[in-house]
Amino acid sequence: MRITGGKFKGRALRFPSRSSSRPTTDFLREALFNLLGPQTEQSFLDLFAGSGSVGLEAASRGAKQIVFVEKNGKLIGVIRENVSLCGCSEQSRIIHDDIASALRALSDQSCRFDVIFADPPYGRGFIGQTLTALQSCPVMEKSGTLVLQHSVREPLPALPGTWFVADRRKYGENLLTFIRMDSA
Known about the structure:
Blueprint: H1 26-36, E1 43-47, H2 53-60, E2 65-70, H3 73-86, E3 92-96, H4 99-108, E4 113-118, H5 126-136, E5 140-151, E6 163-171, E7 174-181
Parallel strand pairs: 1-2, 1-4, 2-3, 4-5
Antiparallel strand pairs: 5-7, 6-7
Helix pairs in contact: 4-5
């Protein structure tokens, strides 16, 4: 697993070989960041961060602030190692907590993000829970984008409030769904 673009391009990242976590592939990360373009140069929230590869890709491409949220303690250690490998500790924050608790804490601290990326475990109902938590804890900038990586077999639940699907791209068995808020 390597960084696909930006100042850390080609940098190898660690990922535990005996993990039940499913890393976002290099191909999918490259497609994601090509679609996001310069929007990633501000603040980036990586939910269900795993090894941190998506947030580190954002750092490589110029994100000024990256927050990683991961519940698995072993993966928190991997994120710390990868952040250190890339030398981006100053712009990174790592939260070891579940998504709902982390989002409440970030909302209470008035944190706002231009891009939120969520790659929950497939087929376990986490998409709906994540959307509910994001709706009750407003951490996305009004002009921001939420990107959900999910299985083509996992339907997207009804979106809350003024949110809408701005784009959807299929890559094999994976979907990248881009969600925005209606600014009206």
